[in-house]
Design goal:
Elements: E1 2-8, E2 13-22, E3 25-35, E4 40-50, H1 54-66
Antiparallel strand pairs: 1-2, 2-3, 3-4
Length: 67
């Protein structure tokens, strides 16, 4: 996986966007990365957009920008 970027969500969580292959599927992953006293690492939930669906997903994000 290759990190594309990240943004801080709050004091304990940042959202990371990565591009690459996971379990044979190429796509974009969006996950929370948390930092707590007892645990530092990936959150339990995330989002994976397959490469062949990226254009469709980006069109939805463009609508958010216009809204």
């Amino acid at each position: 996986m290759v990190e594309i970027g990240r943004v801080r969500k709050n004091e304990t969580t940042e959202v990371r966007v990565e591009n690459g292959e996971y379990k044979g599927s190429v796509g974009i992953s969006v996950w929370g990365h948390v930092t707590f006293d007892r645990y530092t690492g990936w959150s339990k939930s995330g989002l994976r957009i397959p490469a062949d669906k990226w254009t469709e997903f980006k069109a939805i994000l463009d609508k958010v920008d216009r809204a």
